[in-house]
Structures are given as structure tokens and as C-alpha cells.
Design a protein that fits this description.
Elements (H helix, E strand, L loop, with lengths): L7 E4 L3 E5 L6 E6 L15 E3 L2 E5 L7 E5 L4 E2 L5 E5 L10 E3 L2 E6 L6 E5 L6 E6 L11 E3 L2 E5 L4 E6 L7 E6 L17
Length: 189
């Protein structure tokens, strides 16, 4: 919701679009792709917070971007608040939690979490969480903690911290392969 107007946000291989919930009418679009690629696929959803919209470009582009909310018609580069050139996720949706933006790049040999100041894109901290890739489940959060799990069912709990990457626990769930994020409801995981 922005300025009292509800918007449904969608991201595709080369555009983010906002739609009116009642009719589906397109309110605005932003094209972030400068050229096309047959390798493109896009899995992460957009996330909102701090008056911004956060999205990840398709695989191979390694770009996280933040758009200013609102607008109409075709948005220009002037609507981009900031960009970050990597590491960025191939599959995981970013997480906005307690005033921070967290991003997990968990493919290949990496398992890197980056914590951003959402308004500016400044990296507050970045670190490797270890474990066996791939990490394709999106980060989830509750009770001041961030939860992540890899395909081998290794679950890691991080502190939702402004200052540093702090691993609170590691657990081998011994029930792989895992292809879903950790769900949180009514005080339970």
C-alpha cells in the first residue's frame, strides 16, 4: 500500500508491474532489463518495506534493486533508489524484517547473507553461513531470529542483527531434500 492506494506487485523476466486489486488494471511498470537472454528465469518475489520495493533481476544478472513506491505509467531510472551488484539470490526471496533487508545467495559454492540498510542500500554486514549448497528456501523471521534451511535439511538460525552475522544454532533435520522455506505460525516453526 502506498499513499492510501493498494497495489498488487508482480515481477517477471524484465519488468516489475503494479496492478489495481479490484480490476487488475496496470498502474505502472518498470523495465529493468536492458537486453534479453535465453538463460533468464526469475524465481524471487518482490518485497516491500521502508517505502521501497525490492527486487532481484533474473539469474546471471546479479543485481538487487530498490524502487521508490508510487508512480504511474512507465517508470524511469529516476524511480530507482539504489542497486547492489551482488551476491544476490537465484531463487530466495529477500526478507524485510525489523527495519533491515536480508538477502541470501545460496547457489554454487556460496552461502552468503547480506544485511542492508533498506533506505540507502548500504551494506551493514555480509558473511558466509556455511553448510552445503544449494540454499534455495527463502529466509523467514520471527522472535528476533532469521531462519534458513538448505536442500540437505541443514537449518541455521541467525540473529536479526544490525551489527554482525551471528549464527545462533545449526541443526541437521536429517529429512532432505528440502525445497520449501521454514513456515512460521502461532509461535511455531
Amino acid at each position: 500500500e502506498h499513499a492510501g492506494r493498494a497495489e498488487i506487485l508482480l515481477i517477471g523476466a524484465d519488468h516489475v508491474t503494479a496492478h489495481e486489486p479490484q480490476t487488475g488494471r496496470e498502474l505502472w511498470r518498470y523495465g529493468y532489463a536492458t537486453e534479453k537472454s535465453t538463460r533468464w528465469r526469475l524465481i524471487p518475489s518482490v518485497v516491500t518495506g521502508a517505502g521501497l520495493i525490492f527486487g532481484v533481476q533474473p539469474r546471471g544478472e546479479n543485481q538487487l534493486f530498490a524502487l521508490k513506491s508510487g508512480g504511474s505509467g512507465t517508470l524511469s531510472k529516476e524511480h530507482v533508489a539504489w542497486t547492489f551488484g551482488g551476491p544476490t539470490p537465484d531463487v530466495c526471496t529477500p526478507l524485510y524484517y525489523r527495519g533491515n533487508l536480508y538477502v541470501l545467495d545460496g547457489v554454487e559454492r556460496r552461502a552468503v547473507v547480506t544485511c542492508f540498510e533498506p533506505q540507502t542500500g548500504r551494506v551493514k554486514w555480509q558473511g558466509k553461513i556455511g553448510g552445503n549448497p544449494p540454499w534455495r528456501a527463502s529466509l523467514t523471521a520471527a522472535d528476533g531470529k532469521i531462519y534458513c534451511i538448505n536442500e540437505d535439511a541443514q537449518a541455521i538460525v541467525l540473529a536479526a542483527s544490525d551489527d554482525e552475522l551471528k549464527v545462533l544454532s545449526r541443526t541437521d533435520m536429517q529429512d532432505g531434500p528440502v525445497h520449501a522455506s521454514i513456515a512460521i505460525a502461532d509461535g511455531h516453526l
